[in-house]
Amino acid sequence: MKKLLAALAVGTLALAGCSSGTDSANDDTFTVGMECGYQPFNWQTSDAQTDSAVEISGGGGYCDGYDVMMSQAIADELGQKLEVKKISWDGLQPALDSGEIDAIVAGMTASDEREEGIDFTTPYYESEGMVMIVRADSEMAGYTDIQDFSGHKVIGQKNTNYDTVIDQIEGVDHQTPLATYPELVAALQNGVADGITAEMPVAEGVVAANPGLAIVQFAEGHGFDVDTTVSIGLKEGTRDSDFFKSVQDALDSISQDTRNEYMKTAVENAPTEE
User: How many angstroms separate the CA atoms of 32 and 92, rounded?
Assistant: First the structure.
């Protein structure tokens, strides 16, 4: 869903001979990497506030959210214990390459470019599309076409499709992307940006936590042209392995109704700011 552009350069830095994350097929742990900072897909808390929260490997609290729920369901199907590692977005592919993690479950969109360094499963979620988050008291809250944002300051997350889609707006004041989503929200609230791009589940979580913000949905045919599916990333070259097939089979066993229920629960449980 999020993040169509990979930082391909990081893939070239990984050693081709590193051990494969598929070693997990031979032990009792399914180790996944995610940011733990991208609600409702994944977020961090100091304690286990829900039954779905999993302690972050190495300490630092707990990680929760849709990605954690999906990862837990897959681990259960594999008969393995789930381990969650908090890793920055740009560090996910190197961690996969090195064997530090077995899978990326972090709202990552598969693309031709990414397929050069990661083997992806079929999508595990697809959002309703890309929207814009704006200040609720601004005239932009009533916009219905992405081109209405021409001349406005719009910002997205670095190395993601949240950033690249902005150039579909003619004459937009495309701001320098930021590394994390909380930074984007702060930029919007502080007036550095007039709008920030998001997928609907993320936008719903942000607005729930920040009542002064609003979601702009675009009329049919007047929105962004972007892939909003997300897939699980496994190490390159493992597509024909037993481990890849077992993960794909485990994913296939999770019904669409269950996936939708997980997302509904994640949106409801995502932290809000009073």
Answer: 10
Question: Which token pair is 133?
Answer: 């988050």
- Helix or strand (DSSP H, E) at 153: strand 153-155
Task: Give the max Cα distance, the chain.
Answer: 57
Identify the segments of the chain with pLDDT beneath 70: 1-26, 273-274
| Phi/psi of residue 22, nearest 5 degrees | -70, -5
Dist CA 78 CA 254 (whole Å): 12
Q: Is residue 221 part of a domain?
A: no
- pLDDT of 86 reads 97
CA 36 – CA 55 distance, rounded (Å)? 11
Residue type at 170 in one-letter notation? E
- Whether residue 108 is found in the same domain as residue 17: yes
Q: Which two tokens stand for residue 100?
A: 């530090």
**DSSP state at residue 56:** B
